[in-house]
Amino acid sequence: MRIITTVAEMQTLVRDLRAAGSSIGCVPTMGSLHDGHASLISSAAEQHGTVITSIFVNPTQFAPTEDLSKYPRNLERDLLIVAQAGGTVVFTPSVEEVYPDGFASIIHVGGIADVFEGARRPGHFDGVATIVAKLLIAMSPDEAYFGQKDYQQTLVVRGLVRDLGFACTITVLDTIREADGLAMSSRNVYLTEEERAQASTLFLALTTARDMIEQGERSVAKLEDAMLATLLMVPGLAIDYASVVMVSTLATIEVLPSGSSVALLLAVRIGSTRLIDNMICSIGA
Amino acid sequence: MRIITTVAEMQTLVRDLRAAGSSIGCVPTMGSLHDGHASLISSAAEQHGTVITSIFVNPTQFAPTEDLSKYPRNLERDLLIVAQAGGTVVFTPSVEEVYPDGFASIIHVGGIADVFEGARRPGHFDGVATIVAKLLIAMSPDEAYFGQKDYQQTLVVRGLVRDLGFACTITVLDTIREADGLAMSSRNVYLTEEERAQASTLFLALTTARDMIEQGERSVAKLEDAMLATLLMVPGLAIDYASVVMVSTLATIEVLPSGSSVALLLAVRIGSTRLIDNMICSIGA
């Protein structure tokens, strides 16, 4: 496995790999890898001769009040997980390499980046869009893999790739969950034992709403009320949002349109840890 | 000469050309080509097996009050000029191809894009940065050529390329001038015969200040006064700015620092036509 730390080296390697006929898949991560990342890497390895996993804790997507300094980091463990999952290259640049002195550019994907997480985490998606553009320019992948857990992020990335015209397919794979349904996330390590037990309530709220939809419920208010009621069983859990919206635009609706797809979106705080989760549901005709 | 109209076709061609070992130079233009563009194309042709000239009148870099609808367009004439200058490919996408329905992304290069032209033409450099990024992603050139006439634009492009990490050298070539010193510009066709005669005053103002610097003048106030006095000889000419600033940052100064380089920047309006020009001067040690 090759470990690359500079953009120039990365671009030279990609050019050589392309000249040799290899297709390239990439998995952008902030490290602290778990089974969710491993599933992205192994899926990429099934499709591409080269799989580049980037590991970079991107400071610009953390708001000043957020958990950048305590964000979990463990490169040695991450390298092992990448290798076991079939990754062939790791791109792990320093902050100074990615954001040299004088760095001043920002990419804003309008609309989709301005609601939900975008409204609550100012600058977050600008940071995401800018780093993803930089990574795509550095790695020139044929295909980039993202987990559905950060659902709104996948829409921002799709918007970015469509708008700037990157020759890269964006593939979004299912959220990988713990046995009790908690979505795997690097931030789960922040949870105390008690909070960890409570955290499965997010999955319970999502499946409750999903089951109601499958049984014919079409009222968004009733679905959102059911998610809220489930979440509020946990004492001390603070709800940022529990919403049912259109799947591609995140537009709010009152009644689920027949033949459409919707996204159930949750963001809550348990203790000092903020958790998000989501589920996509198809509405019968 | 090949004419390409879609991003996907462009990216396929570039991939094929690279696989065949060709290096790629590109010259981004808004068409209405003149000898300045031709000099960029022929310089690119000396260095690269493939020279792609893009011709695209980018609507997003025009403010609502500006001259988008009357901006001169003549594709047939442009193609002839490209061919004569040694261009091998023309990329001329439609507005719908570049900005499809739902397009929502914008790139802002902070600092350098916020002063002079950026302050007077709101959104202009965001439009420039976004289209240049799109063109670089579509054409993947080894080297991109720009004219010095749009000096601040060249700094915005350099900032963009540095910040996003494009593997592309930015080359800025000298402004090509008419016999009387007027910088060639597609907008010169807007000038009436009388205005055209007056327009050479910009070059006179620049050379006046340059000569003063060569003779030892180091006071920015005196240099700017001399440029203003020269420009004000033209009745009805309106001055946007006539400034002496640091060459890379456009920072204002009071005294020219020894051993540095400065940019003389002009923007004026003659009748209804806005003209810009500039000159770079090295200050002796």
Question: Helix and strand layout, with pairings?
Answer:
The structure is a homodimer of 285-residue chains.
Chain A: E1 2-4, H1 7-19, E2 24-29, H2 35-47, E3 50-55, H3 75-85, E4 89-91, H4 95-98, E5 105-109, H5 117-120, H6 124-139, E6 143-147, H7 151-164, E7 169-173, H8 193-198, H9 201-214, H10 220-231, E8 238-246, E9 261-270, E10 273-282
Parallel strand pairs in A: 1-4, 2-3, 2-6, 3-4, 6-7
Antiparallel strand pairs in A: 8-9, 9-10
Relevant terms:
3-stranded antiparallel sheet, 6-stranded parallel sheet, 10 helices, 285 residues, Pantoate--beta-alanine Ligase, Chain: A,domain 2, alpha/beta, globular, homodimer, Rossmann fold, 10 strands, 2 domains
Would you give an account of this structure?
- Two copies of one chain form a homodimer.
- Chain A has a six-stranded parallel β-sheet, with helices on both faces. A three-stranded antiparallel β-sheet of chain A has the order 8-9-10, covered by helices on one side.
- Chain A has two domains: 2-173, HUPs (Rossmann fold, 3-Layer(aba) Sandwich); 186-279, Pantoate-beta-alanine ligase, C-terminal domain (Pantoate--beta-alanine Ligase, Chain: A,domain 2, 2-Layer Sandwich).
- The model of chain A has no long low-confidence stretch (mean pLDDT 97).
- Chain A is α/β, with parallel strands linked by helices and 285 residues long.
- Chain A starts with a strand and ends with a strand.
- Helix content of chain A is 38%, strand content 22%.
- In chain A, helix 2 (35-47) crosses helix 3.
- In chain A, helix 3 links the parallel strand 3 and strand 4.
- Chain A contains ten helices and ten strands.
- Chains A and B meet through helix 1, strand 5, helix 6 and helix 7 of A and helix 1, strand 5, helix 6 and helix 7 of B.
- Strand 5 of chain A pairs antiparallel with strand 5 of chain B.
